[in-house]
């Protein structure tokens, strides 16, 4: 069975030695395309890159021997360097400028009757594409996928073809780090004259019960030939083992005008199938079927085979129960996340995407908001496979700009096309439960906001009437007044949980949820005493006591309170799951070398840091969002110089009771919800700037070195333990890979946790030792990180300082090279750490 999401093998790569020597390019350096039964081929290898303007680079005879061999996906900005003169909102990285990509390839003469198109999952941004000197077109929006027909301009046989791509991302085009370049995957689609069109299937399940499910499929059959097509469309549903569980045929005869696929025409064919005793796709049971569409000629020869993964499930939103999945009320426990992958930048990577979701699932996350743009196909694929529901978001702005060179420049010309293409690409994913027409759109306060919203909503409903639309309102009063809120199906509210009840009471038929919540800020492992309110700490770090939020926001406890109080509210999407590059709130003064805010260049919003290490807040969400018994205690227990002084100690738990011990002596038990903890909040959340949280337990503990232990009890029985020990001096480096075996495909990754430990194996919570890495064998260093939002250390390096005792080393396999990767981490005065990773073909 063909999985249209999986990576495909392509031909030989360009000869790097010839390029570096400046010699003329040899014919064998071109990628040899070998069409097969698989219609979708990876087109990522064999590219050359040049940063800067290159007049005439679209021409086939352009001399590019000095360009850099660069496999895709590629984000040139993540390579740096960081620059305080570049906008800190976009991470102080070089996101703007001009970049060129070129790729040579050959197609055998035997493929002259085939049709070829090139598909870009995304290019940042203002992309223009040529093949053999002919301009195919362009796309300004960097987050949208697009494709072009190559066939009329191709050479077959031994003659080479060259694709050229120019991208010109602009400064001040984004409010966060967007990346730069061809940062998503590129594909070559190879078909016969009659085939399923691009994004050519639409699968719905209008009737679902335990006994059977109706699967309705609309298939676009494209006839590129000059005569009518006499074909049969065979549609099958396969279970994960490849077993056929439903099948239907539709004959399209040229003698039947109503069913004929005419020359150079597209025909939409509707098929209905019945699956008996269906397995439903659910958060806890993400069961996926495959729809196989086979276009066959009169002799039953398969001309085209197109595979669409899908799920059988029902979704609904109820004004009393919130979100219903398969008829069951499910509270949305979601996060908003931007698209960068930390030290890897915006360049899409399958394993890094999967890892992020795995870490989020550990906190109880069940939903993702693709903030604030269409995501990579890989993210949606993993949400399908792992059981996350998704708010698929389209835009951060419409006609009125938030930044001078943002999407508002293109909205009038491109918004309809971008919306329709987004839905065509994404509508078969069972994970998607709503489409967002925009985030905090300035038109919330404009008289024409309602009409503009209705226009976009109509596009979404026309392309996919099975899912509701929404928008995220930070000005709900304005959106209600001008009709924008009434135009969408679900009303998303940003940072105003105290307005949920009023909105529901004023509009009893509306569905309300928290589309963006909390925005608490913190630095992993950093604790400031006394516990302070929101302020710029001179260290450029923010306390991990989880009580600091910007003026417009609040700590998680406030949202928990209103979500518990109002079960009809469908849930929330936290800002954010992961830290991301850019928006280093509150340190926005990054311009100018003398600013006191420099070098802060990444966000502090995530409950997971940029390297993927959970902060304390991760466990606060886990205590509310999960049922498996847990307890987490904070802060660290290295407070030399404060002996005898009271240290605030907090515990987060989902169990009934917690007992705290210091060096074996009980400091008392506290029942969950029994002793609310006062925490500071902004005036928006409370007039007296105080909030009493029932979601935490707190002790004032006079400091003495040793072991701090929290024990959780349920029904009187011990069910979970967390403990922290006072660490001694740093003594060794410890390396722990998240996976000891990876694929030898050049793309798979192992994320190695680097810990600075004392002689007894305790984490040294304030260590910042510089660790140097040596990697040999069948792999190499892809990137390094440590989760510190205020450093200009490069992500592409063979060294990294620890931050709060931790760093991250990302190891990549080498394509086609199976074997062992040997990794060593050394730091002056410390015992070295070693680990080994196996790569397999």
Q: What can you see in these coordinates?
A:
Helices cover 12% and strands 36% of the residues. The protein has 841 residues and is mainly beta. The strands form eleven sheets. It has an eight-stranded parallel β-barrel, surrounded by four helices. Helix 2 (350-362) crosses helix 3 and helix 4 packs parallel to helix 5. The protein starts with 15 loop residues before the first helix and ends with a strand.
Largest sheet: 8 strands, parallel, barrel
Compute the separation of the termini in Å. Answer: 20 Å
Structural class: mainly beta
Number of strands: 47
The shape is globular
Radius of gyration: 28 Å
Keywords:
841 residues, mainly beta, seven-stranded mixed β-sheet, 47 strands, 12% helix
Brief account:
With 841 residues, this protein is mainly β. Helices cover 12% and strands 36% of the residues. The strands form 11 sheets. The chain has an 8-stranded parallel barrel, surrounded by 4 helices.
Map the helices and strands.
Blueprint: H1 16-21, E1 31-32, E2 40-42, E3 47-51, E4 68-69, E5 99-106, E6 115-120, E7 127-131, E8 134-139, E9 146-149, E10 161-167, E11 186-191, E12 194-208, E13 212-223, E14 231-238, E15 244-252, E16 265-276, E17 289-296, E18 302-310, E19 315-318, E20 322-325, E21 328-329, E22 332-337, H2 350-362, E23 367-370, H3 377-386, E24 389-393, H4 411-426, E25 432-439, H5 449-463, E26 469-473, H6 476-481, H7 484-487, E27 490-494, H8 500-506, E28 511-518, H9 556-565, E29 571-575, H10 616-625, E30 631-634, E31 646-653, E32 657-662, E33 665-671, E34 677-680, E35 690-693, E36 697-702, E37 707-714, E38 717-725, E39 732-737, E40 741-743, E41 749-757, E42 770-777, E43 779-785, E44 799-801, E45 806-813, E46 819-826, E47 833-840
Parallel strand pairs: 1-5, 22-23, 22-29, 23-24, 24-25, 25-26, 26-27, 27-28, 28-29, 40-47
Antiparallel strand pairs: 2-11, 3-4, 3-5, 5-10, 6-9, 6-11, 7-8, 7-10, 12-13, 13-16, 14-15, 14-17, 17-18, 19-20, 20-21, 30-31, 31-36, 32-33, 32-37, 34-35, 37-38, 39-41, 41-45, 42-44, 42-46, 43-45, 46-47
Helix pairs in contact: 2-3, 4-5
